[in-house]
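I am writing to request your help with a piece of structural work I have in hand. Thank you for your consideration; the sequence and its C-alpha coordinates are set out here:
=====
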Amino acid sequence: MERLTRGRGLALAGRLAEAAAVLAEAAGVAPRWAEPRLLLGLCESQLGRSDAALASLAAALDLSGPTPSRRAQGAEHVTAEQWAELRATALFERGNVHVRVGRPAEAMAAYGAVLALQPQHAHAYSNIGVVHYGAARYSEAARRFGAATRLHPRFADAYQHHGAALKALGALEEAYASYEHAAGLVGAASSEPLRGMALVERERGRLPQALKLLAAATAIAPAVTQLHLDRGVVHDYAEDRLAAIAAYTEALRLAPGGVPQATYFRGRAAKSICLWRGWELQMRSVRAALRAEGGATAMGIDPVASLSYPFSAPELLVVAREALAFKLSLTAPAAAPPRRAEHAPHLALRKGGERLRVGLVSSYFRDHNLLRLCRGLFLRADASRVALHLFAESDDDRSAILREVQAAPAVASFTRIRGTPTQV
Protein backbone atom coordinates (compact mmCIF):
# COMPACT_ATOMS: atom_id res chain seq x y z
CA MET A 1 0.00 0.00 0.00
CA GLU A 2 1.35 3.39 -1.09
CA ARG A 3 0.30 5.19 2.12
CA LEU A 4 2.00 2.60 4.32
CA THR A 5 5.26 2.90 2.35
CA ARG A 6 5.11 6.69 2.47
CA GLY A 7 4.31 6.74 6.19
CA ARG A 8 7.21 4.40 6.93
CA GLY A 9 9.56 6.63 4.95
CA LEU A 10 8.43 9.76 6.78
CA ALA A 11 8.91 8.01 10.13
CA LEU A 12 12.43 6.91 9.21
CA ALA A 13 13.20 10.51 8.21
CA GLY A 14 12.09 11.70 11.64
CA ARG A 15 9.00 13.51 10.36
CA LEU A 16 6.81 11.82 12.95
CA ALA A 17 3.74 14.07 12.89
CA GLU A 18 3.45 13.77 9.10
CA ALA A 19 4.09 10.03 9.30
CA ALA A 20 1.34 9.61 11.90
CA ALA A 21 -1.16 11.45 9.70
CA VAL A 22 -0.35 9.30 6.65
CA LEU A 23 -0.40 6.05 8.68
CA ALA A 24 -3.78 6.98 10.19
CA GLU A 25 -5.08 7.33 6.62
CA ALA A 26 -3.59 3.92 5.77
CA ALA A 27 -5.27 2.37 8.81
CA GLY A 28 -8.60 3.88 7.77
CA VAL A 29 -8.32 2.53 4.24
CA ALA A 30 -7.31 -0.95 5.44
CA PRO A 31 -9.10 -1.45 8.78
CA ARG A 32 -7.99 -5.09 9.06
CA TRP A 33 -4.30 -4.49 8.36
CA ALA A 34 -2.09 -4.68 11.46
CA GLU A 35 1.11 -3.06 10.25
CA PRO A 36 -0.20 0.52 9.74
CA ARG A 37 -1.54 0.49 13.29
CA LEU A 38 1.75 -0.81 14.65
CA LEU A 39 3.75 1.91 12.91
CA LEU A 40 1.15 4.50 13.89
CA GLY A 41 1.46 3.43 17.53
CA LEU A 42 5.26 3.74 17.36
CA CYS A 43 5.00 7.26 15.93
CA GLU A 44 2.40 8.33 18.48
CA SER A 45 4.55 6.96 21.28
CA GLN A 46 7.55 9.00 20.15
CA LEU A 47 5.33 12.06 19.84
CA GLY A 48 4.26 11.64 23.47
CA ARG A 49 0.64 10.77 22.63
CA SER A 50 0.49 7.94 25.13
CA ASP A 51 -3.24 7.14 25.09
CA ALA A 52 -3.40 7.19 21.30
CA ALA A 53 -0.27 5.02 21.09
CA LEU A 54 -1.73 2.41 23.44
CA ALA A 55 -4.97 2.30 21.42
CA SER A 56 -3.13 1.88 18.12
CA LEU A 57 -0.85 -0.80 19.49
CA ALA A 58 -3.82 -2.65 21.01
CA ALA A 59 -5.51 -2.62 17.59
CA ALA A 60 -2.33 -3.98 15.99
CA LEU A 61 -2.24 -6.79 18.54
CA ASP A 62 -5.88 -7.60 17.95
CA LEU A 63 -5.35 -7.78 14.18
CA SER A 64 -2.24 -9.94 14.50
CA GLY A 65 -3.95 -12.66 16.50
CA PRO A 66 -3.54 -16.33 15.62
CA THR A 67 -7.03 -17.02 14.26
CA PRO A 68 -7.59 -16.81 10.46
CA SER A 69 -10.51 -14.41 10.86
CA ARG A 70 -8.18 -11.88 12.44
CA ARG A 71 -5.37 -12.21 9.93
CA ALA A 72 -4.48 -8.89 8.33
CA GLN A 73 -5.71 -8.41 4.81
CA GLY A 74 -3.12 -8.81 2.12
CA ALA A 75 -0.75 -10.61 4.46
CA GLU A 76 -1.23 -14.24 3.55
CA HIS A 77 2.50 -14.45 2.81
CA VAL A 78 3.48 -13.47 6.37
CA THR A 79 5.08 -16.33 8.31
CA ALA A 80 4.35 -17.32 11.89
CA GLU A 81 7.75 -15.92 12.88
CA GLN A 82 6.91 -12.59 11.30
CA TRP A 83 3.58 -12.49 13.14
CA ALA A 84 5.44 -13.18 16.38
CA GLU A 85 7.85 -10.34 15.59
CA LEU A 86 4.98 -7.93 14.93
CA ARG A 87 3.23 -8.87 18.16
CA ALA A 88 6.45 -8.69 20.16
CA THR A 89 7.17 -5.22 18.78
CA ALA A 90 3.68 -4.00 19.67
CA LEU A 91 3.87 -5.48 23.17
CA PHE A 92 7.37 -4.10 23.76
CA GLU A 93 6.31 -0.58 22.79
CA ARG A 94 3.20 -0.86 24.98
CA GLY A 95 5.53 -1.67 27.86
CA ASN A 96 7.61 1.41 27.06
CA VAL A 97 4.52 3.63 27.03
CA HIS A 98 3.35 2.21 30.36
CA VAL A 99 6.76 2.96 31.88
CA ARG A 100 6.61 6.50 30.57
CA VAL A 101 3.20 7.19 32.13
CA GLY A 102 4.07 5.54 35.45
CA ARG A 103 2.36 2.16 35.23
CA PRO A 104 5.12 -0.30 36.17
CA ALA A 105 2.83 -3.32 36.70
CA GLU A 106 1.33 -2.98 33.21
CA ALA A 107 4.80 -2.48 31.76
CA MET A 108 6.07 -5.67 33.42
CA ALA A 109 3.10 -7.60 32.06
CA ALA A 110 3.80 -6.34 28.55
CA TYR A 111 7.52 -7.17 28.70
CA GLY A 112 6.68 -10.60 30.13
CA ALA A 113 4.39 -11.22 27.15
CA VAL A 114 7.26 -10.26 24.84
CA LEU A 115 9.49 -12.86 26.47
CA ALA A 116 6.76 -15.49 26.16
CA LEU A 117 6.87 -14.90 22.39
CA GLN A 118 10.62 -14.32 22.10
CA PRO A 119 12.58 -15.71 25.08
CA GLN A 120 15.82 -14.29 23.67
CA HIS A 121 14.55 -10.68 23.60
CA ALA A 122 17.44 -8.91 25.35
CA HIS A 123 15.78 -5.49 25.32
CA ALA A 124 12.74 -6.84 27.16
CA TYR A 125 15.00 -8.24 29.88
CA SER A 126 16.80 -4.91 30.10
CA ASN A 127 13.58 -2.92 30.37
CA ILE A 128 12.27 -5.23 33.09
CA GLY A 129 15.53 -4.45 34.86
CA VAL A 130 14.85 -0.73 34.47
CA VAL A 131 11.45 -1.15 36.15
CA HIS A 132 13.00 -3.10 39.03
CA TYR A 133 15.75 -0.50 39.39
CA GLY A 134 13.18 2.30 39.55
CA ALA A 135 11.53 0.45 42.47
CA ALA A 136 14.90 0.03 44.25
CA ARG A 137 14.83 -3.75 43.70
CA TYR A 138 18.50 -3.71 42.78
CA SER A 139 19.17 -7.45 43.00
CA GLU A 140 16.31 -8.20 40.62
CA ALA A 141 17.43 -5.39 38.32
CA ALA A 142 21.00 -6.68 38.22
CA ARG A 143 19.75 -10.18 37.39
CA ARG A 144 17.73 -8.92 34.40
CA PHE A 145 20.51 -6.67 33.11
CA GLY A 146 22.91 -9.59 33.39
CA ALA A 147 20.54 -11.74 31.32
CA ALA A 148 20.32 -8.99 28.69
CA THR A 149 24.11 -8.78 28.35
CA ARG A 150 24.44 -12.55 28.04
CA LEU A 151 21.85 -12.62 25.27
CA HIS A 152 23.31 -9.57 23.52
CA PRO A 153 27.04 -9.23 24.35
CA ARG A 154 27.29 -5.85 22.59
CA PHE A 155 24.29 -4.30 24.35
CA ALA A 156 26.02 -1.21 25.77
CA ASP A 157 22.97 0.21 27.57
CA ALA A 158 22.43 -3.06 29.42
CA TYR A 159 26.04 -3.05 30.62
CA GLN A 160 25.57 0.59 31.70
CA HIS A 161 22.39 -0.25 33.64
CA HIS A 162 24.01 -3.36 35.09
CA GLY A 163 26.80 -1.19 36.43
CA ALA A 164 24.29 1.14 38.10
CA ALA A 165 22.45 -1.76 39.77
CA LEU A 166 25.68 -3.35 40.98
CA LYS A 167 26.87 -0.01 42.33
CA ALA A 168 23.60 0.37 44.25
CA LEU A 169 24.24 -3.08 45.75
CA GLY A 170 27.72 -2.03 46.84
CA ALA A 171 29.46 -4.42 44.41
CA LEU A 172 31.88 -1.74 43.28
CA GLU A 173 34.44 -3.94 41.50
CA GLU A 174 31.77 -5.61 39.40
CA ALA A 175 30.03 -2.28 38.77
CA TYR A 176 33.26 -0.72 37.50
CA ALA A 177 33.88 -3.66 35.19
CA SER A 178 30.38 -3.39 33.73
CA TYR A 179 30.70 0.36 33.15
CA GLU A 180 34.14 -0.19 31.64
CA HIS A 181 32.73 -2.77 29.22
CA ALA A 182 30.00 -0.32 28.19
CA ALA A 183 32.64 2.38 27.64
CA GLY A 184 34.56 0.04 25.36
CA LEU A 185 31.42 -0.60 23.30
CA VAL A 186 30.32 3.02 22.86
CA GLY A 187 33.72 4.73 22.63
CA ALA A 188 33.28 8.47 22.15
CA ALA A 189 29.59 8.15 21.34
CA SER A 190 28.49 8.51 24.97
CA SER A 191 29.89 9.97 28.18
CA GLU A 192 27.62 7.91 30.46
CA PRO A 193 29.85 4.85 31.01
CA LEU A 194 32.80 7.07 31.92
CA ARG A 195 30.58 8.94 34.34
CA GLY A 196 29.53 5.63 35.92
CA MET A 197 33.18 4.62 36.33
CA ALA A 198 33.89 8.00 37.93
CA LEU A 199 31.06 7.56 40.43
CA VAL A 200 32.43 4.16 41.42
CA GLU A 201 35.89 5.65 41.89
CA ARG A 202 34.36 8.38 44.04
CA GLU A 203 32.70 5.71 46.19
CA ARG A 204 36.05 3.96 46.53
CA GLY A 205 37.62 7.23 47.68
CA ARG A 206 39.90 7.38 44.62
CA LEU A 207 39.18 11.02 43.88
CA PRO A 208 42.00 11.81 41.39
CA GLN A 209 40.91 8.87 39.25
CA ALA A 210 37.28 10.01 39.46
CA LEU A 211 38.24 13.52 38.31
CA LYS A 212 40.30 12.12 35.42
CA LEU A 213 37.35 10.05 34.22
CA LEU A 214 34.98 13.01 34.55
CA ALA A 215 37.40 15.15 32.53
CA ALA A 216 37.32 12.52 29.78
CA ALA A 217 33.52 12.38 29.92
CA THR A 218 33.28 16.17 29.78
CA ALA A 219 35.55 16.23 26.72
CA ILE A 220 32.98 14.00 24.99
CA ALA A 221 29.94 15.97 26.19
CA PRO A 222 30.99 19.43 27.38
CA ALA A 223 27.41 20.74 27.51
CA VAL A 224 26.11 18.03 29.87
CA THR A 225 25.47 19.89 33.11
CA GLN A 226 25.43 16.72 35.23
CA LEU A 227 29.10 16.11 34.49
CA HIS A 228 30.05 19.55 35.81
CA LEU A 229 27.89 18.95 38.87
CA ASP A 230 29.65 15.62 39.43
CA ARG A 231 33.04 17.31 39.11
CA GLY A 232 31.99 19.81 41.74
CA VAL A 233 30.94 17.05 44.12
CA VAL A 234 34.24 15.20 43.72
CA HIS A 235 36.19 18.43 44.30
CA ASP A 236 34.03 18.91 47.41
CA TYR A 237 34.97 15.41 48.59
CA ALA A 238 38.63 16.39 48.07
CA GLU A 239 37.98 19.61 50.03
CA ASP A 240 39.06 21.71 47.03
CA ARG A 241 36.24 24.20 47.46
CA LEU A 242 37.35 26.76 44.87
CA ALA A 243 37.48 24.09 42.16
CA ALA A 244 34.09 22.83 43.33
CA ILE A 245 32.60 26.33 43.12
CA ALA A 246 33.99 26.74 39.60
CA ALA A 247 32.41 23.44 38.50
CA TYR A 248 29.04 24.29 40.03
CA THR A 249 29.16 27.73 38.43
CA GLU A 250 29.77 26.16 35.02
CA ALA A 251 26.79 23.84 35.51
CA LEU A 252 24.60 26.85 36.33
CA ARG A 253 25.97 28.78 33.34
CA LEU A 254 24.96 25.94 31.03
CA ALA A 255 21.50 25.60 32.58
CA PRO A 256 20.51 28.70 34.56
CA GLY A 257 17.90 27.71 37.09
CA GLY A 258 17.86 24.15 35.79
CA VAL A 259 20.35 22.60 38.19
CA PRO A 260 18.93 23.01 41.71
CA GLN A 261 21.70 20.93 43.28
CA ALA A 262 24.38 23.21 41.86
CA THR A 263 22.59 26.21 43.38
CA TYR A 264 22.70 24.69 46.87
CA PHE A 265 26.07 22.94 46.58
CA ARG A 266 27.82 26.09 45.35
CA GLY A 267 26.57 28.01 48.38
CA ARG A 268 27.51 25.16 50.69
CA ALA A 269 31.06 25.12 49.31
CA ALA A 270 31.35 28.89 49.61
CA LYS A 271 30.08 28.78 53.20
CA SER A 272 32.62 26.13 54.16
CA ILE A 273 35.51 28.52 53.29
CA CYS A 274 33.73 31.67 54.53
CA LEU A 275 33.42 33.08 51.04
CA TRP A 276 30.57 35.45 51.82
CA ARG A 277 30.58 37.50 48.62
CA GLY A 278 27.12 37.12 47.09
CA TRP A 279 25.84 35.10 50.07
CA GLU A 280 22.51 36.93 50.34
CA LEU A 281 21.80 36.40 46.65
CA GLN A 282 22.75 32.75 47.07
CA MET A 283 20.33 32.29 49.97
CA ARG A 284 17.53 33.98 48.05
CA SER A 285 18.04 31.44 45.24
CA VAL A 286 18.03 28.52 47.69
CA ARG A 287 14.91 29.77 49.47
CA ALA A 288 13.11 30.30 46.15
CA ALA A 289 13.92 26.72 45.12
CA LEU A 290 12.89 25.45 48.55
CA ARG A 291 9.40 26.95 48.12
CA ALA A 292 8.78 24.82 45.02
CA GLU A 293 7.23 21.39 45.56
CA GLY A 294 10.05 18.89 46.01
CA GLY A 295 12.58 21.71 46.09
CA ALA A 296 14.61 20.39 49.03
CA THR A 297 14.88 16.96 47.39
CA ALA A 298 15.84 18.48 44.03
CA MET A 299 18.63 20.48 45.68
CA GLY A 300 19.84 17.51 47.72
CA ILE A 301 19.67 19.37 51.03
CA ASP A 302 20.74 17.09 53.85
CA PRO A 303 18.59 17.55 56.99
CA VAL A 304 21.64 17.55 59.28
CA ALA A 305 23.57 20.02 57.11
CA SER A 306 20.51 22.26 56.91
CA LEU A 307 20.86 23.00 60.63
CA SER A 308 23.92 25.13 59.89
CA TYR A 309 21.97 27.29 57.44
CA PRO A 310 19.93 30.38 58.38
CA PHE A 311 16.69 28.55 57.58
CA SER A 312 13.52 29.34 59.47
CA ALA A 313 11.79 26.62 61.50
CA PRO A 314 9.14 26.05 58.77
CA GLU A 315 11.91 25.75 56.17
CA LEU A 316 13.78 23.20 58.29
CA LEU A 317 10.56 21.23 58.64
CA VAL A 318 10.14 21.20 54.85
CA VAL A 319 13.67 19.84 54.47
CA ALA A 320 13.12 17.09 57.05
CA ARG A 321 9.74 16.03 55.66
CA GLU A 322 10.96 15.89 52.07
CA ALA A 323 14.05 13.91 53.05
CA LEU A 324 11.89 11.35 54.87
CA ALA A 325 9.37 11.08 52.03
CA PHE A 326 12.14 10.64 49.47
CA LYS A 327 13.89 7.98 51.52
CA LEU A 328 10.68 5.98 51.96
CA SER A 329 9.81 6.30 48.27
CA LEU A 330 13.08 4.60 47.35
CA THR A 331 12.49 1.51 49.45
CA ALA A 332 8.76 1.07 50.07
CA PRO A 333 6.96 -1.64 48.05
CA ALA A 334 5.16 -0.21 45.01
CA ALA A 335 1.68 -1.10 46.17
CA ALA A 336 1.78 -2.10 49.80
CA PRO A 337 -1.75 -2.69 51.13
CA PRO A 338 -2.77 -0.68 54.18
CA ARG A 339 -2.21 -2.54 57.40
CA ARG A 340 -4.65 -2.81 60.24
CA ALA A 341 -3.25 -1.35 63.42
CA GLU A 342 -2.21 -4.01 65.88
CA HIS A 343 -1.51 -3.60 69.57
CA ALA A 344 1.59 -5.47 70.57
CA PRO A 345 1.82 -6.68 74.18
CA HIS A 346 3.98 -4.60 76.47
CA LEU A 347 7.59 -5.76 76.51
CA ALA A 348 10.09 -4.76 79.15
CA LEU A 349 13.15 -2.98 77.75
CA ARG A 350 15.40 -5.48 79.48
CA LYS A 351 15.41 -8.07 82.17
CA GLY A 352 17.52 -7.83 85.27
CA GLY A 353 21.20 -8.11 84.41
CA GLU A 354 20.53 -8.01 80.63
CA ARG A 355 22.24 -5.37 78.52
CA LEU A 356 20.06 -2.73 76.89
CA ARG A 357 20.15 -3.28 73.12
CA VAL A 358 20.25 -0.07 71.08
CA GLY A 359 20.17 0.10 67.30
CA LEU A 360 21.58 3.08 65.37
CA VAL A 361 21.13 3.64 61.63
CA SER A 362 23.32 6.07 59.70
CA SER A 363 24.89 6.77 56.33
CA TYR A 364 27.89 8.34 58.12
CA PHE A 365 29.66 5.24 59.42
CA ARG A 366 32.79 6.39 57.59
CA ASP A 367 35.50 9.03 57.97
CA HIS A 368 33.02 11.90 58.33
CA ASN A 369 32.58 14.80 60.71
CA LEU A 370 29.50 13.20 62.25
CA LEU A 371 31.35 10.00 63.13
CA ARG A 372 34.23 12.04 64.50
CA LEU A 373 31.82 13.91 66.75
CA CYS A 374 30.09 10.69 67.90
CA ARG A 375 33.24 8.58 68.22
CA GLY A 376 33.34 8.91 72.00
CA LEU A 377 29.75 7.71 72.28
CA PHE A 378 30.73 4.33 70.87
CA LEU A 379 34.16 4.02 72.46
CA ARG A 380 33.11 5.01 75.98
CA ALA A 381 29.73 3.27 76.18
CA ASP A 382 29.59 0.81 79.08
CA ALA A 383 29.68 -2.61 77.41
CA SER A 384 28.36 -4.24 80.57
CA ARG A 385 25.11 -2.27 80.35
CA VAL A 386 24.62 -1.46 76.65
CA ALA A 387 24.86 -3.49 73.43
CA LEU A 388 25.07 -1.24 70.37
CA HIS A 389 23.92 -2.62 67.01
CA LEU A 390 25.05 -0.38 64.17
CA PHE A 391 23.36 -0.40 60.74
CA ALA A 392 25.31 1.39 58.01
CA GLU A 393 23.83 2.80 54.82
CA SER A 394 27.32 3.85 53.74
CA ASP A 395 29.97 1.78 51.98
CA ASP A 396 33.15 0.64 53.73
CA ASP A 397 35.77 3.38 53.34
CA ARG A 398 38.34 1.27 55.27
CA SER A 399 39.15 4.28 57.46
CA ALA A 400 40.92 4.00 60.82
CA ILE A 401 38.09 5.73 62.67
CA LEU A 402 35.53 3.27 61.31
CA ARG A 403 37.67 0.29 62.31
CA GLU A 404 38.10 1.80 65.78
CA VAL A 405 34.34 2.18 66.22
CA GLN A 406 33.62 -1.32 64.91
CA ALA A 407 36.06 -2.75 67.47
CA ALA A 408 34.58 -0.84 70.41
CA PRO A 409 33.58 -3.22 73.28
CA ALA A 410 30.00 -1.94 73.39
CA VAL A 411 29.44 -2.52 69.65
CA ALA A 412 27.76 -5.91 69.48
CA SER A 413 27.18 -5.95 65.72
CA PHE A 414 27.81 -3.91 62.58
CA THR A 415 25.58 -4.52 59.54
CA ARG A 416 25.59 -2.88 56.11
CA ILE A 417 22.04 -2.29 54.89
CA ARG A 418 22.59 -0.24 51.75
CA GLY A 419 20.11 -1.45 49.12
CA THR A 420 18.08 -3.45 51.63
CA PRO A 421 14.35 -2.76 51.10
CA THR A 422 12.35 -1.27 53.95
CA GLN A 423 9.59 -3.61 55.08
CA VAL A 424 6.37 -1.80 55.95
Remarks:
- Strands lie at 356-362, 386-392, 411-416.
- Residues 80-100 form the longest helix (21 residues).
- The first strand starts at residue 356 and ends at 362.
- Residues 356-416 form one domain.
